[in-house]
Design a protein that fits this description.
Largest sheet: 10 strands, mixed
Radius of gyration: 19 Å
Oligomer: single chain
Order of helices and strands: EHEHEHEHHHHEEEHEHHHEHHEHHEE
Structural class: alpha/beta
Distance between the termini: 17 Å
Length: about 400
């Protein structure tokens, strides 16, 4: 990065079940944006640009959202990158500051969703003209196209391949959900805060074999925001005590490797996650061995296991053992998804990547209350969207 970049203010709403509260997306944006500005101790008048992410609203919804914070005439960029939307908005803001175009940029993400699984009820014909047609085509060539929700289907098939190839067990997949639901008990902003045993996770309704309902992230309403600032801005406004440095950040989209093998493991993103992580390690001079706390994209339990492998936490095929050994919970080598992750905290698509970074900022400042990772100094965020894009971000508290 050409100039140092810092996250100086974060905020988010509670993540909630869709239709459980009478609010609009601009209400969510006002709440999260106001919280982030308040956390930084600055007014909206100091924000020079805004990057706003969402998937389920009309064009220029970003303007409607930030107008709740002020009418200053600043540029507003509307971002849509599937489940990686929030981190894509953050990356745009980081680039504006790193490149010297701005000293203070707001990244904001929100989603107001409908109940039920994404794409539920759609058949193969509906996805023939979808941006995901190539991805689902790879899956269908090996596994066919079932009547189950398509996102659960493609990740469920990735899980089956992982089990066949490496001997991963249904219990190891379920242990991801056990861990993340346990973590969410201490997160007051999480959509679900119930703890479940391994037997309860396994006995829950099957969504697509081998994934049960408690291993799948829910649709959610919510918003999150991050104030991104230059070193000059931090010093001028006395924000050293708030600032968390962005040490590296990279986005990778699908390459030939995503499709060449015909494997759902590759088409859901393990290769591009690995490439993004390696780019960030080169940028930052830090490796996975330096990381204390990780917020990663557990849209389904299997994707947490695939992400362990992509981030270099273990060799391919060893991720099931990693979670079974307790290496990714409190007291382990890393603490992964102390927020509860997407599975339990919730997954409002446009807000997810920003909420991950909000959690990491709280962790690195030592402000995460009962879910605090002791001594956390370096954090890693991983946010992925089918279609595809993955953003990996390395943060450090000096």
């Amino acid at each position: 990065m050409s100039q140092k970049v810092y996250l100086v203010g974060v905020g988010m709403t509670n993540f909630e079940k869709p239709e459980s509260r009478d609010w609009q997306y601009w209400d969510m944006a006002r709440e999260a944006g106001t919280a982030a500005l308040g956390d930084a101790g600055i007014g909206y008048a100091l924000v020079e640009q805004a990057c706003v992410g969402y998937c389920y609203q009309q064009s220029t919804a970003g303007q409607r959202a930030v107008y709740e914070l002020g009418l200053t005439g600043i540029p507003v960029y509307n971002v849509n990158n599937n489940c990686a939307t929030g981190s894509s908005a953050l990356m745009m803001a980081v680039q504006f500051v790193a490149g010297g175009a701005n000293d203070c940029v707001l990244a904001l993400g929100f989603e107001k969703m409908s109940r039920g699984a994404l794409g539920a009820g759609k058949g193969a014909a509906d996805f023939a003209v979808s941006p995901l047609a190539r991805h689902y085509g790879v899956m269908a060539a090996r596994h066919g196209f079932a009547a189950t929700p398509p996102t659960a289907q493609i990740f469920g098939n990735a899980a089956r391949e992982h089990m066949d190839r490496y001997g991963t067990t249904v219990e190891q997949l379920a242990l991801v959900a056990v861990k993340n639901h346990r973590h969410s008990v201490d997160n007051p902003r999480a959509q679900f805060r119930d703890e479940y045993t391994l037997d309860q996770v396994l006995a829950a309704k099957t969504i697509h074999e081998p994934l049960t309902k408690l291993q799948c992230s829910p649709t959610s309403d919510g918003a999150a925001a991050v104030v991104v600032a230059s070193e000059r801005f931090v010093l001028e406004h006395g924000l050293e005590g708030k600032a968390v440095e962005v040490m590296g950040q990279a986005m990778v989209t699908d390459t030939e490797e995503s499709f060449a093998s015909g494997s759902s493991i590759d088409v859901v993103g393990r290769p591009m996650s690995r490439a993004a992580a390696q780019a960030v390690y080169r940028q930052s001079g830090l490796g996975i061995e330096d990381v204390d706390v990780i917020e990663l994209h557990d849209c389904f339990s299997v994707n947490e296991l695939l992400s362990y492998e992509a981030l270099g936490m273990c060799a391919d095929g060893e991720s099931g053992k990693l979670v079974a050994e307790g290496a990714t919970g409190h007291g382990g080598r890393w603490v992964v998804n102390p927020s509860g992750g997407l599975i339990s905290k919730g997954h409002p698509l446009g807000a997810t990547g920003l909420a991950q970074c909000a959690e990491l900022v709280w962790q690195l400042r030592g402000e995460a209350d009962r879910r605090q990772v002791t001594g956390a100094r370096v954090g890693l965020a991983h946010n992925i969207g089918l279609g595809g894009a993955v953003v990996v971000t390395m943060l450090r508290r000096s």
